[in-house]
Amino acid sequence: MPTKAEVKQYVLERDNHRCSFCGKETKSITQIIPKCLGGRIIANNCFAVCQQCANMHSIRLQDTFKTEINNKTNRATLYTDASVRKAKHKRTKLAFIIRSNNSNKIVEKQSIKLPYHKDTTLMELKSIYLGIDRLINLGIKTAIVYSDNSAALGLITGTIVQHSKRSNNYNKILNEIVLMRKNISLKFKWIKREQNREAHYLTTNAME
Protein backbone atom coordinates (compact mmCIF):
# COMPACT_ATOMS: atom_id res chain seq x y z
CA MET A 1 0.00 0.00 0.00
CA PRO A 2 1.60 3.32 -1.07
CA THR A 3 2.14 5.95 1.61
CA LYS A 4 0.46 9.39 1.43
CA ALA A 5 3.77 10.93 0.41
CA GLU A 6 4.20 8.39 -2.39
CA VAL A 7 0.65 8.97 -3.65
CA LYS A 8 1.22 12.74 -3.61
CA GLN A 9 4.48 12.45 -5.53
CA TYR A 10 2.91 10.14 -8.11
CA VAL A 11 -0.14 12.40 -8.64
CA LEU A 12 2.01 15.53 -9.00
CA GLU A 13 4.22 13.81 -11.57
CA ARG A 14 1.20 12.41 -13.39
CA ASP A 15 -0.37 15.89 -13.58
CA ASN A 16 2.97 17.54 -14.44
CA HIS A 17 2.88 19.60 -11.22
CA ARG A 18 0.10 21.72 -12.76
CA CYS A 19 -3.24 22.69 -11.22
CA SER A 20 -6.02 20.74 -12.89
CA PHE A 21 -8.21 23.89 -12.95
CA CYS A 22 -6.00 26.83 -13.91
CA GLY A 23 -2.77 25.18 -15.05
CA LYS A 24 -0.53 27.00 -12.56
CA GLU A 25 2.44 25.17 -11.08
CA THR A 26 1.58 23.59 -7.75
CA LYS A 27 2.91 21.23 -5.10
CA SER A 28 -0.51 20.37 -3.65
CA ILE A 29 -3.09 17.70 -4.35
CA THR A 30 -6.65 17.11 -3.21
CA GLN A 31 -9.26 14.36 -3.27
CA ILE A 32 -12.19 14.11 -5.70
CA ILE A 33 -14.34 12.41 -3.07
CA PRO A 34 -13.31 13.87 0.31
CA LYS A 35 -12.47 11.77 3.34
CA CYS A 36 -15.70 12.78 5.11
CA LEU A 37 -17.67 11.05 2.32
CA GLY A 38 -15.55 7.92 2.35
CA GLY A 39 -12.88 8.95 -0.14
CA ARG A 40 -9.41 7.43 0.13
CA ILE A 41 -5.98 8.88 -0.56
CA ILE A 42 -5.25 6.85 -3.67
CA ALA A 43 -4.05 8.03 -7.06
CA ASN A 44 -7.39 7.55 -8.81
CA ASN A 45 -9.12 9.76 -6.21
CA CYS A 46 -6.56 12.59 -6.23
CA PHE A 47 -5.42 15.34 -8.57
CA ALA A 48 -3.10 18.34 -8.51
CA VAL A 49 -4.61 21.68 -7.52
CA CYS A 50 -3.32 25.08 -6.43
CA GLN A 51 -4.49 26.59 -3.13
CA GLN A 52 -6.54 29.34 -4.79
CA CYS A 53 -8.53 26.91 -6.92
CA ALA A 54 -8.96 24.58 -3.95
CA ASN A 55 -10.66 27.46 -2.10
CA MET A 56 -12.72 28.67 -5.04
CA HIS A 57 -14.05 25.41 -6.41
CA SER A 58 -16.13 22.60 -4.99
CA ILE A 59 -13.73 19.69 -5.21
CA ARG A 60 -15.90 16.66 -5.14
CA LEU A 61 -18.27 14.62 -7.26
CA GLN A 62 -21.52 16.56 -6.99
CA ASP A 63 -23.73 13.52 -7.58
CA THR A 64 -21.97 11.65 -4.77
CA PHE A 65 -22.66 14.42 -2.29
CA LYS A 66 -26.28 14.83 -3.40
CA THR A 67 -26.84 11.11 -2.94
CA GLU A 68 -25.30 11.25 0.55
CA ILE A 69 -27.58 14.14 1.50
CA ASN A 70 -30.74 12.63 0.01
CA ASN A 71 -30.13 9.30 1.72
CA LYS A 72 -29.88 10.99 5.12
CA THR A 73 -31.73 13.95 6.59
CA ASN A 74 -31.62 16.47 3.73
CA ARG A 75 -30.66 19.01 6.38
CA ALA A 76 -27.49 21.01 6.87
CA THR A 77 -25.94 23.82 8.89
CA LEU A 78 -24.33 26.86 7.26
CA TYR A 79 -21.67 29.03 8.91
CA THR A 80 -20.70 32.31 7.22
CA ASP A 81 -18.15 35.06 7.77
CA ALA A 82 -16.74 38.16 6.08
CA SER A 83 -13.50 39.92 6.99
CA VAL A 84 -12.11 43.22 5.76
CA ARG A 85 -8.44 44.11 5.93
CA LYS A 86 -7.80 47.85 5.78
CA ALA A 87 -4.06 48.03 6.35
CA LYS A 88 -1.40 47.20 3.78
CA HIS A 89 -2.96 45.18 0.94
CA LYS A 90 -6.64 45.97 1.24
CA ARG A 91 -8.74 42.84 0.87
CA THR A 92 -12.22 41.55 1.56
CA LYS A 93 -12.68 37.84 2.09
CA LEU A 94 -15.92 35.87 2.29
CA ALA A 95 -16.30 32.32 3.54
CA PHE A 96 -18.91 29.71 4.27
CA ILE A 97 -18.88 26.20 5.71
CA ILE A 98 -21.59 23.57 5.25
CA ARG A 99 -21.95 20.78 7.79
CA SER A 100 -24.13 17.70 7.48
CA ASN A 101 -26.68 17.57 10.30
CA ASN A 102 -26.48 13.79 10.25
CA SER A 103 -22.73 13.37 10.79
CA ASN A 104 -21.77 16.93 11.86
CA LYS A 105 -18.88 16.67 9.42
CA ILE A 106 -17.85 19.46 7.06
CA VAL A 107 -19.02 18.58 3.56
CA GLU A 108 -18.00 21.82 1.90
CA LYS A 109 -16.04 24.98 2.65
CA GLN A 110 -15.19 27.87 0.39
CA SER A 111 -13.40 31.20 0.72
CA ILE A 112 -13.44 33.96 -1.87
CA LYS A 113 -11.25 37.06 -2.14
CA LEU A 114 -12.85 40.29 -3.35
CA PRO A 115 -11.68 43.88 -3.80
CA TYR A 116 -11.68 45.94 -0.63
CA HIS A 117 -15.10 47.08 0.63
CA LYS A 118 -15.52 48.94 3.89
CA ASP A 119 -19.10 47.75 4.57
CA THR A 120 -18.64 44.52 6.52
CA THR A 121 -22.40 43.99 6.93
CA LEU A 122 -22.95 44.11 3.17
CA MET A 123 -20.09 41.65 2.68
CA GLU A 124 -21.61 39.34 5.30
CA LEU A 125 -24.91 39.44 3.40
CA LYS A 126 -23.05 38.41 0.25
CA SER A 127 -21.40 35.54 2.13
CA ILE A 128 -24.81 34.37 3.40
CA TYR A 129 -26.23 34.67 -0.12
CA LEU A 130 -23.43 32.54 -1.60
CA GLY A 131 -23.83 29.91 1.12
CA ILE A 132 -27.61 29.64 0.65
CA ASP A 133 -27.19 29.42 -3.12
CA ARG A 134 -24.77 26.52 -2.62
CA LEU A 135 -27.20 24.75 -0.25
CA ILE A 136 -29.94 24.95 -2.88
CA ASN A 137 -27.63 23.67 -5.62
CA LEU A 138 -26.75 20.69 -3.43
CA GLY A 139 -30.41 19.82 -2.94
CA ILE A 140 -30.64 20.83 0.73
CA LYS A 141 -34.22 21.50 1.82
CA THR A 142 -33.74 22.66 5.41
CA ALA A 143 -30.83 24.52 7.01
CA ILE A 144 -29.79 26.68 9.95
CA VAL A 145 -27.66 29.69 9.05
CA TYR A 146 -25.21 30.90 11.72
CA SER A 147 -23.47 34.27 11.56
CA ASP A 148 -21.70 36.48 14.10
CA ASN A 149 -22.88 39.63 12.28
CA SER A 150 -26.08 40.63 14.09
CA ALA A 151 -26.73 43.54 11.71
CA ALA A 152 -26.79 41.26 8.65
CA LEU A 153 -29.12 38.81 10.36
CA GLY A 154 -31.35 41.66 11.53
CA LEU A 155 -31.70 42.94 7.97
CA ILE A 156 -32.64 39.49 6.70
CA THR A 157 -35.19 38.79 9.41
CA GLY A 158 -36.58 42.33 9.41
CA THR A 159 -35.70 43.16 13.01
CA ILE A 160 -33.40 45.98 11.82
CA VAL A 161 -34.55 48.72 9.47
CA GLN A 162 -32.11 49.75 6.74
CA HIS A 163 -30.50 53.16 6.78
CA SER A 164 -31.84 55.12 3.81
CA LYS A 165 -28.37 55.81 2.40
CA ARG A 166 -27.66 52.10 2.30
CA SER A 167 -31.00 50.92 0.88
CA ASN A 168 -29.85 50.62 -2.72
CA ASN A 169 -26.79 48.61 -1.70
CA TYR A 170 -28.77 46.20 0.46
CA ASN A 171 -32.11 45.85 -1.35
CA LYS A 172 -30.86 43.79 -4.27
CA ILE A 173 -29.13 41.12 -2.22
CA LEU A 174 -31.92 41.03 0.41
CA ASN A 175 -34.51 40.53 -2.33
CA GLU A 176 -32.43 37.67 -3.76
CA ILE A 177 -32.33 36.00 -0.35
CA VAL A 178 -36.13 36.39 -0.05
CA LEU A 179 -36.56 34.60 -3.40
CA MET A 180 -34.16 31.85 -2.30
CA ARG A 181 -36.22 31.19 0.84
CA LYS A 182 -39.02 29.92 -1.40
CA ASN A 183 -36.80 26.95 -2.29
CA ILE A 184 -35.35 26.13 1.13
CA SER A 185 -36.51 26.32 4.74
CA LEU A 186 -34.06 28.49 6.69
CA LYS A 187 -33.55 29.57 10.28
CA PHE A 188 -31.09 32.36 11.05
CA LYS A 189 -29.18 32.42 14.32
CA TRP A 190 -26.50 34.66 15.79
CA ILE A 191 -23.42 33.12 17.38
CA LYS A 192 -20.36 34.57 19.09
CA ARG A 193 -17.23 35.09 17.04
CA GLU A 194 -15.35 32.40 18.97
CA GLN A 195 -18.13 29.91 18.16
CA ASN A 196 -17.70 30.74 14.48
CA ARG A 197 -13.95 30.17 14.52
CA GLU A 198 -13.81 27.75 11.55
CA ALA A 199 -15.45 30.19 9.11
CA HIS A 200 -13.54 33.09 10.67
CA TYR A 201 -10.27 31.21 10.11
CA LEU A 202 -11.05 30.91 6.39
CA THR A 203 -11.50 34.66 6.06
CA THR A 204 -8.51 35.72 8.15
CA ASN A 205 -6.01 33.07 7.02
CA ALA A 206 -3.74 34.14 4.17
CA MET A 207 -5.46 37.49 3.69
CA GLU A 208 -2.34 38.76 2.03
Short description:
By secondary structure, the chain is of the alpha/beta class. It has helices at 4-14, 51-56, 62-70, 120-137, 150-157, 167-180, 197-204, and strands at residues 29-31, 46-48, 75-85, 91-100, 106-114, 142-147, 185-190.
Can you describe what's shown?
With 208 residues, this protein is α/β, with parallel strands linked by helices. The chain contains seven helices and seven strands. The chain has helices at 4-14, 51-56, 62-70, 120-137, 150-157, 167-180, 197-204, and strands spanning 29-31, 46-48, 75-85, 91-100, 106-114, 142-147, 185-190. α4 crosses α5 and α4 (120-137) packs parallel to α6 (167-180).
Helix-strand blueprint:
Blueprint: H1 4-14, E1 29-31, E2 46-48, H2 51-56, H3 62-70, E3 75-85, E4 91-100, E5 106-114, H4 120-137, E6 142-147, H5 150-157, H6 167-180, E7 185-190, H7 197-204
Parallel strand pairs: 3-6, 6-7
Antiparallel strand pairs: 1-2, 3-4, 4-5
Determine Rg (CA atoms, Å). Answer: 19 Å
Number of helices: 7
Tell me the distance between the termini: 39 Å
For the sheet with most strands, the description reads: 5 strands, mixed
Can you list the strand order of the major beta sheet? 5-4-3-6-7
Quickly name the level 1 CATH class of the largest domain: Alpha Beta
**Assigned CATH superfamily of the largest domain:** Ribonuclease H-like superfamily/Ribonuclease H
CATH topology of the largest domain: Nucleotidyltransferase, domain 5
Task: Quickly count the domains.
Answer: 2
Derived structural class: alpha/beta
Strand content: 15-25%
Q: What are the secondary-structure elements, in order, as H or E?
A: HEEHHEEEHEHHEH
Could you estimate the helical fraction of the residues in percent?
25-40%
At CATH's second level, what is the architecture of the largest domain?
2-Layer Sandwich
